[in-house]
Q: What sequence folds into this?
């Protein structure tokens, strides 16, 4: 009799599980437009559509944008264990530089920064998940490299964070150059470009690589002196250093940068509309900082004379043909940049909130400053 | 001041601790070691800072479950406590009815004494809950726990005094289903679950889904049809010979390849499938042990009564065999419970993973606080496993199953 | 009409209709089962090939020849070495864990199992606590704890301790005195191997002598003595095929001796403790299953407690304990895959690294599973042979 009860319970569970799976099935190829209207072309330049006419969103009905809109949320592959970039806070919310860009994408498409489904991924899983379509966009402090672009089926978009790989050692070890680390052990996280770069750079130097799966065990090993050097992206090293209990001066990040580590979002190969949308979400935050638009002052620009701002925020522009609103033809409602900026702020705000000098990581802009201030952050014009 | 030591006590000490030269040496050596360890433990507990646990308790317990919806977890706990109380009361009332019918002395219904006995019986769990309550920052969890205990006790007392009815068991069975529905309503699927809740869920769901598959495999292994038997043996030997981590890897990386491209199961679902496939092989072996322990005379008697093979299996073999497997099945449950910590290696935020996230927080980073979080996680798992193994031993004694 | 003939036993019963004929049903069910399995396999295979083709993932095992890309702790392989070599290195590390760990855990398990039944109250309580704590903890937690709380507490790698000048100990690695192979090492080893084989024959001969004539066999002394004598003669004749080396620390380099990584000791220690607690339970159960009359008879023969254990109780107990203990050995081997969290480069970590560096995941995982299956099968086979031999000895 108990058997019958167990079988009944299992059957109900199975039923519940099937309804779960049904919610997550992707509907490929169903048209989503409510008013099945005119498609705006997504290439050369944009067009100013006379105000009053509605433009359809994602009306090709066949791409990832349509799928995402049908689903109602963006699936974002993230890290949940790196403070400042992708981290699970004690209250269950997620915070970080990459998390904010996920929210920006959601705000751009749905107007709601919370329309995101966060999918935490390990370093090994991330590209498989992207290729398999389990996530729509991968924003997980991932380095843009040629082989990933080519071989891993990913398309990389505008770099959000320019970083480099460095080595951190104890200040009292006396090491100043990488060659000093001969015959020592070096800790590194497995499954990342960091590992490969270390092997390449140290090809003539004898060393013992200690590869860990998780950062916290690695840090304990480094602090305990099991390895003399810890190699990772300099931003992560700087973050740990500034929060180090013995004081930042107990650790030294060696000057030499092994490799360039441009971090940015990645999407699956093959859908250029979706790639362009994510790309321009990033660009829009940079342009907003250039123009001085912040999350708090978006509404104050209603009467500005600056045409760039008017185009960005989707405000009406008077011209000889009449009143029009700029539409770049990406497939989103004009004025989507305003949603993005209201939700997460401009690039500077995102940077300062998560990794800036006042945050626990305490990083300076340096390479990540605007091009007008000597950095590399530069966006194409929104016209 | 005279120290009066009774004669019996010295005799006991003389016999049990210092019975011979070797024995005395070992006693002294062990005594010194235990004293040292206890001293270090007390020093550790007194001087450590438990802020990391206090601040992250919710993270440890439920992971990234949306905090505004935590009332669902509370409701589910209350429902399960109610079900446990009803089950306890039903067991007691059915035992009393049977004793009454057999003219044997009737055991007493639960009273105040049984509350004390309950704490003695489940002291590891009580200890764990007490530790957690000491670490909470608000008073809500304490109220919840007291409410759950009160509900459990009250329902058990009430039901034990009502006449026994077999259909009341359906309430007990329905309760976990209702709890699940409460937890997962409004789009909160099991993807959002994390922390200790995820470990418990993976264990329960894993065993539940694996049981029918394991049962078919065990029966198939004993079948006289060569194809069915070969397939069963191949499945069982294959999945018992590989570690769980390889199957988890397969679930994460390769499961999607086996499914048509429309299906897109979430991470938790894929891990659950991998765990189910893994557990089915072990459950098949456990059930096979139970089937083997059945005297062959039972099957012979059944066939002499004219029962078909299917009827024999259903009415004669399975009830007895499954009863014999209960302790080993609980052992498998415990084993799976401990193995669910492995899902941290494939990215799910179970309790071990959330503990490493907690030690990565900027406030707690690089201070060696793993020596506080790891024992806490260990305590949680130990309390669960130890309680289950004690209950399994009690069941084994009560059901009178011989050692295997 | 009464024919008076009795019921003829040669009368054949009527053939039951085919839907009730057991033979037909059996054949039909088997065909259905075969078809069912075939359909499932076909659908899966179809999906797999379709999906692989759609994603452009290769289906061959070429990855074994691709360069691994990174170095591995504790080995000399260069980053350009093929994945195949890295995997073999990983298998060697798993073997090292197994070969060192299995004997240790057996000894510890038997000790604790016997200790639980000891007359000394403290010993039995401590053994009980040992078993009840370790058995109920997840092995992963034990490994991480052993790593962080024990190994990392040793002196840091930049300033190891050198007790007696014979050892070099740090939390990274431990060096012990070892030997280095010189000239004639191969000859020496083959002679020692031969001596061991002859020693096994001597063992068998002395056992026969004891069984037939009743004289004490002294087989340990005979066989080991033979091996020792032959080995010494060979060593002296060949002239230094081995040189004992002590680890010498110069700067950061240690020359000589044998080396063990800290992570290795953490994993091995944790898993030995964990598995030995299970073995202790099994041993205790099997000792308690030995009929009480045996212990009483042994006491009546004036055997001491230790002699009773060694000659009467344990031989019988260990025979019944062997199958579940084999299971624990297999669990130990499978649990070595948990070493990934502390960075010990056994075969699962190598697989993780390979997948992370772009090798095709399904093939890597299949290779990994095959490696573990081979391990499991080999261990099961060895122990099953032993089991059968032991069972044949009893009546």
A:
């Amino acid at each position: 009799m108990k058997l019958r009860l167990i079988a009944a319970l299992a059957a109900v569970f199975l039923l519940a599980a099937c309804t779960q799976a049904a919610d997550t099935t992707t509907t490929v190829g169903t048209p989503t437009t409510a008013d099945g209207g005119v498609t705006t072309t997504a290439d050369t330049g944009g067009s100013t559509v006379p105000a009053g006419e509605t433009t359809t969103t994602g009306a090709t009905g066949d791409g990832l944008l349509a799928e995402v809109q049908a689903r109602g949320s963006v699936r974002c592959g993230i890290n949940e264990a790196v403070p400042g970039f992708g981290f699970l806070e004690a209250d269950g919310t997620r915070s970080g530089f990459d998390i904010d860009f996920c929210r920006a994408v959601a705000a751009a498409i749905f107007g709601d920064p919370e329309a995101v489904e966060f999918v935490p991924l390990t370093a090994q899983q991330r590209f498989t998940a992207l290729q398999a379509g389990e996530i729509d966009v991968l924003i997980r402090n991932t380095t843009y490299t040629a082989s990933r672009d080519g071989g891993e089926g990913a398309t990389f978009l505008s770099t959000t964070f320019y970083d480099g790989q460095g080595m951190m050692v104890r200040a009292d070890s006396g090491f100043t150059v990488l060659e000093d680390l001969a015959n020592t052990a070096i800790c590194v996280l497995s499954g990342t470009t960091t590992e490969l770069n270390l092997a390449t750079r140290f090809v003539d130097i004898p060393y013992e690589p200690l590869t860990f799966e998780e950062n916290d065990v690695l840090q304990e090993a480094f602090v305990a002196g099991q390895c003399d050097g810890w190699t990772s992206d300099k931003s992560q090293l700087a973050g740990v250093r500034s929060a180090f209990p013995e004081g930042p001066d107990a650790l030294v990040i060696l000057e030499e940068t092994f490799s360039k580590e441009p971090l940015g979002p990645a999407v699956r190969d093959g859908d250029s509309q979706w790639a362009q949308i994510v790309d321009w979400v990033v660009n829009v935050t940079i342009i907003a900082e250039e123009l001085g638009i912040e999350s708090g002052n978006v509404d104050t620009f209603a009467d500005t004379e600056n045409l760039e701002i008017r185009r960005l925020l989707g405000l009406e522009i008077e011209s000889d043909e009449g009143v029009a609103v700029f539409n770049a033809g990406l497939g989103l409602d004009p004025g989507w940049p305003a949603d993005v900026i209201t939700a997460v702020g401009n690039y500077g705000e995102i940077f300062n909130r998560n990794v800036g000098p006042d945050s626990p990581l305490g990083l300076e802009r340096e390479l990540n400053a605007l091009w007008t201030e000597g950095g590399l952050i530069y966006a194409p014009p929104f016209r | 001041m005279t120290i009066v030591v009774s004669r019996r006590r010295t005799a006991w000490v003389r016999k049990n601790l210092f019975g011979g030269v070797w024995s005395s040496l070992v006693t002294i050596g062990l005594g010194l070691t235990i004293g040292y360890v206890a001293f270090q433990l007390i020093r550790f507990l007194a001087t450590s800072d438990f802020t990391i646990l206090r601040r992250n308790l919710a993270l440890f317990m439920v992971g990234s479950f949306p905090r505004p919806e935590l009332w669902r977890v509370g409701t589910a706990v209350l429902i399960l406590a109610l079900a446990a109380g009803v089950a306890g009361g039903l067991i007691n009332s059915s035992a009393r009815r049977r004793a009454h019918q057999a003219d044997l002395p009737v055991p007493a219904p639960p009273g105040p004494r049984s509350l004390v006995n309950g704490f003695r019986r489940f002291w590891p769990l009580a200890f764990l809950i007490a530790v957690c309550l000491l670490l909470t920052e608000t008073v809500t969890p304490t109220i919840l726990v007291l409410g759950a205990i009160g509900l459990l006790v009250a329902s058990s007392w009430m039901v034990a005094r009502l006449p026994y009815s077999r259909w009341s068991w359906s309430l007990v069975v329905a309760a976990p289903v209702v709890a699940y529905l409460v937890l997962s309503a409004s789009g909160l699927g099991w993807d959002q679950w994390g922390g200790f809740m995820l470990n418990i869920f993976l264990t329960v769901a894993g065993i539940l889904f694996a049981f029918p598959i394991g049962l078919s495999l065990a029966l198939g292994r004993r079948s006289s049809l060569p194809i069915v038997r070969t397939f069963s043996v191949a499945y069982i030997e294959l999945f018992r010979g590989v570690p769980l981590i390889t199957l988890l890897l397969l679930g994460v990386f390769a499961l999607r390849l086996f499914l048509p491209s429309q299906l897109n199961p979430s991470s938790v679902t894929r891990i659950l499938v991998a765990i189910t496939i893994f557990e089915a092989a072990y459950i098949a072996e456990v059930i096979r042990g139970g089937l083997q322990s059945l005297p062959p005379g039972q099957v012979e008697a059944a066939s002499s009564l004219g029962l078909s093979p299917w009827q024999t299996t259903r009415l004669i073999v399975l009830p007895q065999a499954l009863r014999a497997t209960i302790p080993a099945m609980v052992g498998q449950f415990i084993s799976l419970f401990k193995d669910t910590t492995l899902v941290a290696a494939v990215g799910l935020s179970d309790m071990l993973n959330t503990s490493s996230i907690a030690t990565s927080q900027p406030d707690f980073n690089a201070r060696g606080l793993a020596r506080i979080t790891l024992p806490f996680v260990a305590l949680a798992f130990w309390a669960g496993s130890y309680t289950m193994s004690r209950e399994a031993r009690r069941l084994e004694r009560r059901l009178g199953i011989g050692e295997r | 009409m009464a024919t008076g003939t009795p019921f003829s036993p040669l009368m054949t019963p009527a053939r039951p209709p085919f839907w009730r004929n057991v033979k037909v049903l059996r054949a039909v069910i088997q065909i259905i089962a075969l078809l069912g399995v075939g359909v499932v396999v076909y659908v899966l295979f179809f999906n797999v090939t379709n999906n692989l083709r759609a994603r452009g993932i290769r289906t061959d095992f070429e990855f074994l020849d691709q360069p691994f890309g990174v170095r591995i702790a504790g080995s000399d392989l260069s980053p350009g070495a093929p994945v195949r070599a890295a995997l073999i290195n990983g298998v060697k590390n798993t073997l090292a864990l197994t070969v060192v760990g299995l004997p240790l855990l057996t000894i510890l398990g038997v000790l604790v199992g016997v200790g639980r039944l000891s007359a000394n109250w403290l010993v039995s309580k401590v053994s009980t606590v040992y078993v009840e704590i370790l058995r109920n903890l997840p092995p992963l937690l034990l490994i991480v704890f052993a790593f962080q709380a024990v190994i990392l507490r040793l002196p840091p790698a930049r300033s190891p301790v050198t007790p007696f000048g014979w050892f070099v100990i740090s939390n990274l690695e431990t060096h012990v005195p070892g030997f280095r192979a010189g000239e004639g090492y191969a000859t020496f080893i083959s002679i020692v191997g031969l001596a061991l084989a002859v020693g096994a024959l001597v063992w068998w001969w002395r056992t026969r002598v004891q069984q037939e004539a009743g004289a004490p066999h002294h087989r340990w002394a005979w066989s080991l003595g033979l091996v020792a004598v032959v080995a010494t003669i060979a060593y002296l004749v060949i002239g230094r095929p081995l040189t004992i080396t002590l680890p010498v620390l110069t700067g950061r380099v240690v020359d000589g001796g044998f080396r063990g990584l800290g992570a290795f000791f953490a994993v091995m220690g944790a898993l030995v403790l964990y598995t030995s607690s299970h073995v202790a339970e099994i041993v205790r159960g099997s000792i308690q299953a030995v009929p009480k009359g045996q212990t009483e008879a042994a006491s009546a023969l004036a055997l001491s407690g230790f002699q009773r254990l060694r000659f009467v109780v344990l031989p019988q107990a260990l025979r019944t304990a062997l199958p579940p203990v084999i299971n624990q050995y297999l669990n130990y081997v499978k649990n070595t895959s948990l070493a990934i969290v502390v960075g010990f480069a056994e075969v699962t970590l190598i697989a993780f690294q390979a997948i992370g560096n772009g090798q095709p995941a399904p093939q890597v995982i299949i290779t990994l599973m095959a490696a573990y299956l081979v391990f499991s099968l080999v261990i099961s086979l060895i122990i099953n042979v032993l089991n059968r031999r032991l069972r044949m000895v009893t009546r």
Q: What stands out?
A: The mean pLDDT of chain B is 87. Residues 74 and 144 of chain B are 7 Å apart (CA to CA).
